Structure formats: structure tokens, C-alpha cells
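Help! Submission page says 'invalid entity' but I think these are all valid:
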Amino acid sequence: MRRGSLLRALTTLALAIACAAGAWAQAQAPLPSWNEGAAKSGIVAFVQAVTDPKGKNFVAPADRIAVFDNDGTLWAEQPLYFQFLFMLDQVKKAAPQHPEWQQNAAFNALAAQDKAALEKLGTKPLLELLGQANSGMTVAEYDKTIRDWLATARHPKFERPYTDLTYVPMRELLDYLRANGFKTFIVSGGSSEFMRPWAEKAYGIPPEQIVGSQQEVKFEMKDGKPVLTREAKFAFVDDGPGKPVGIYRHIGKRPILAFGNSDGDLQMLQVTTAGEGRRLALIVHHDDAQREFAYDRESHVGKLDKALDAAPANHWLVVSMQKDWKRIFGFQQ
Amino acid sequence: MRRGSLLRALTTLALAIACAAGAWAQAQAPLPSWNEGAAKSGIVAFVQAVTDPKGKNFVAPADRIAVFDNDGTLWAEQPLYFQFLFMLDQVKKAAPQHPEWQQNAAFNALAAQDKAALEKLGTKPLLELLGQANSGMTVAEYDKTIRDWLATARHPKFERPYTDLTYVPMRELLDYLRANGFKTFIVSGGSSEFMRPWAEKAYGIPPEQIVGSQQEVKFEMKDGKPVLTREAKFAFVDDGPGKPVGIYRHIGKRPILAFGNSDGDLQMLQVTTAGEGRRLALIVHHDDAQREFAYDRESHVGKLDKALDAAPANHWLVVSMQKDWKRIFGFQQ
């Protein structure tokens, strides 16, 4: 029994010191890349409210679930979703193995960079082509393809690796939330496997906390080894009304904080703030053409229209990249 | 700068004390309900090997992923999977709202407890009936139905709540693994939503670490509120070859430890031990008719045949409930 008591005392002491150290770290500098304003003060007030054990808005750590869209929320998404650029590059790479594509209208329009022809064809034949170029291999082979591409591909405007295009203020926010006992998840329209190779290093979010769109994969034994092979078919699209479904399936709890940037996040924000108790929903507004891009209602990529209209009545915070963020990317001063 | 140094020193001290306390707790009594033998010593040797930072088999905490089947591995599954019993009870409950079921052969065979008629019909009409009785409501309503059932239903043999039928040695193993930096997941053929209401209390496994079969759910706005409604259709069956797919989609890392009890776990065990480095796969063998149930190759529920044959060549540990476990349930001495 004496051993047990000593053990408990040691554990309590360790926890107390860890908590004191954590509290101090937070007090030192919360969100240094955020300018003072309604967005920053709204975030800090929310976090203080839900972590105050004596307050009426206290939320137990197990229920401090925060969900983040990825494209346009945690990293850039212009001129095209980066995963889309990757998948297009896979079409180029796979072309020599697919002589039949010479008769494929979508392939020919792509090869000729004929935008008018692509628009006329519509998205279906293009998506089918992308599906063919991005399937048939094992998931391990595909993972390597993604890593190789990320190591060499460069963003057309910033001429840097795509993984340099994560937003510093958002990385600070993720750290700040985790320091306050939150569990942070990505809930993205992109596919989980495209984010997993780099999201842990970039955001501190491990593969098992990434909810994304899912391609069909098939289990097989090949030469006595179990492998998963990618099929040219989507199993689940984690976008728009799919996001609450993805959250339900993967997390099984209603988030208390959600952060998005487009109409594809509308339903995720609705589900989050429809819960009881204090909730926070935020929208990144891309209004900084100089440091990043400026777009919203008319954009083909990351269109923000309905969610922007819904924000005031729902008390969702709209974060201006231009006004609320001191820096955007790590390579900018 | 001095603040930062003090902070680091405090954090280091806290971690050191926490580690010392943890190490002591483990040294005191690892797996007290397990008899000495190959199973227990195999588990302890594996955990020591992958957690020894100086050893060649060391695995970083982020990759210490352990997956557990639920039915027959963490709790009992006879005379029928408990979720199946629950779903059958929902048919009874829903019958007054479904006068059309009076013309349904599966319903009539069930109501008459006519086993011969049920076998003749096959599983399809029965599963369709179960699907109808377990859909149409919101996920919140269904969650309440599950909780209510668990609070009142009793197991036919043990005459106790189903949640009393978790295995004490397995709960100890889950605790032991987590104390050694493992992240524990359930990967079950049952549905996530049936396990979530009780798995955290029973096993210390939170909803977001439960991988299971998935029914289709649909997002809708009803009276201005977002709701998810259950549809009478399965989106994903997390069993057999589905388990490696579920693991890939949800966890995104290859487990280093897997524990199952039936042929439905075969592929999960194969995927786990096909990875590089040290791996451990285990099978619960139900060979204790006195304290629980005895069944394997001929059982309709939890059939263990191919996986039992595959165990020796793959160095999977077969755990005998009779010989390896001092106790099975918490209510037995």
C-alpha cells in the first residue's frame, strides 16, 4: 500500500509540474502571428472558457475536438488544389503505358493545354482519366509516388515546395489548441493518403487524425504477401454534406471548434455550432492578393459564397488573411 | 531566455517523474490475470523489445499501433453477436409501426422462432428486415436506443448486462500497452456506433479509435438543424479482407500488434505480421466451456479455422482462455 501511495503522489506531482509548465508556455505568447482583433480575441476567449474547470462552459479534454479543413484553410489551394496538380502529373507520367489514351479526348485536351476543349468535355471524362492514372498500384507504391512528387514539385507562383505553403498562423493555432488539451483533426475534401505523408511534420497531426475522401482499395494476397491495391473508384467523398458524415464515422463526437474556408465546409461548420454549450466556427477569408491570393464568391477553387452569407447570423468568425495575420508563410517576413 | 530554460527544466523534471512512476507501475504487476506461460511471456518480451530505446527492435511511440477485434476478443460473442441480439430486439420494437411485416416471411419466422424456416430463407431477407428496423432515425436517436438497450438487456447464459462480459485479462493488456506508449484501436466487424457508447468506459478506447462496419448516413437540414439520418444500407463491412482496408482508411499505419479470435481476423493478422521489424499477432482460443464457451472450427459465430491453421507457421500466439487466463469476467473469482 505504501508503494501505491508514493506512486500516486509522484504522479500527482508530475502532473502538477507539467500543467504549470504548460500554463506558462501558453501565457508567454499565444498566437504570435495573429494581429490583435476580433478573430484572435474570439479564439483566446473560447479556449479560456472551455478549459476553465470552474466555468459553466467547461469541456472535458476528451470532448475538446477541433476539426480543420486543409486546402485553403491550413495551406494554399490556388491556382488549383495541390492534389489535383499531383494527379495531373500522374497522367503525364503514366501516358507511355497507356497508348489507348491517344484516342481519349480528355487526355488530348490536357496534352494540348486546350482549356476550351476541357470545359466543353466537362469534369467526368477528366476525373475518369485521373482515376485511371492514379490506380492499379499498391498503396505503398502510391505513397512513395506522393512523397517523390512533394520532394520535387514546385508551386507555380511561389516556386517553392508545396509543403512550404502551410499557413504559420494556423500552425500556431493547432499548437495552441493542443497545448490546451484539444485533439486536432483534419477533415478535408482531399484524400487522406495525399495528406498523411507530410501532415504530421507540417501540422503535428498524425495519420489517424486525418479524415478525407477515400478511394476504393482491395485486399489481396500476392506471392504470399498481403497487399492493398488502389481501384479507379471513389468510396467516399468527404466534402460538403460528406464532411459531417466523415466526422461521424471517423471521430464519433461532435467537434466544438471547426475551421474552414469555403462552401465545402458549410455543413461542417453547421454541425459544429448546432451542438449544445459553447462552440466556435471560423472561416479563412482569402483577401490578400499581395501575400497570397484574393478570391471568394466567384472562384472555381475554394468558392466561398453561401458560408460567407451564413457567417453573421451563426456568429462564425471570418478571419481576414490581410488584417488578422502578421505573416502567412514561413518564408515571408 | 531564463524563463525558457526554467520551463524546459520543469518539463524535463515532470517527464522524468512521470516516466519513473510509469515504469514502477508496470514493474509492479504486469498482466496479473494472466497465468505464466508462452502467451504472457511472449507479450511481455515483445513490449520490452519495442520500447527499449537502445534495442534494435525499438519502435517510436507514434508507430506503436495495436489493433483489437471486439466480439470474442475483448468481450463474449455467444450465443450470438450481441449487436445482432440488439438489432433483433429492434425488429420486435418496431413491429407495431410496420403492419406490412405481417406478410414478411423473415419476420414471421422470427416471431414464431422457427429456426428451420429461417435457415431455409437464408440471410438476405433477415438482414433486410434488420436494416429496416435499424434505420430511418437520426444517429442521436439510435445512440440513445443502444444505450437504453445496454442498460436493460441481459445475457441469456450469465444473466448480466452485456457490458459485464468484457474479458479482464484483455482489459489489463490494453492498459499495459497504453502504459508502454501504445495507441490502442478496436477493429471490429460490428458497427462503430454500437461500440462507442460503452467502449471508452469498458476498455479506455475513445470513439475516434474505433474502426467498425459503417451504415450509410445522410446529412440533412431539418427545421434549420443539421441532422444525420440512418439509411437501410451498409457503406462498409469491416470484416475479413475489409479489416486491412478499415485500418488503412482510418489509421493509415500498419499495426505492430494485432489480436483477434476468428477467421474474420485472418487478414488483419496477416497485414500486421507482414510488416518489417518485430511484430506480434495473437488469437484468443475459446476452449473454456465451464467459465465461458468452447468453440472454434464448427461454430457459426466466431468461427476459428483458417486462422488457427495459419498460426504456427506465422508465429502467431494462440491464447488458451482455459490455461492462460486466471479469470475471464470481473464477476467471476
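Support: the input was valid. A stray whitespace character was the problem, and the output above is from the cleaned input. Chain B has a mean pLDDT of 92.
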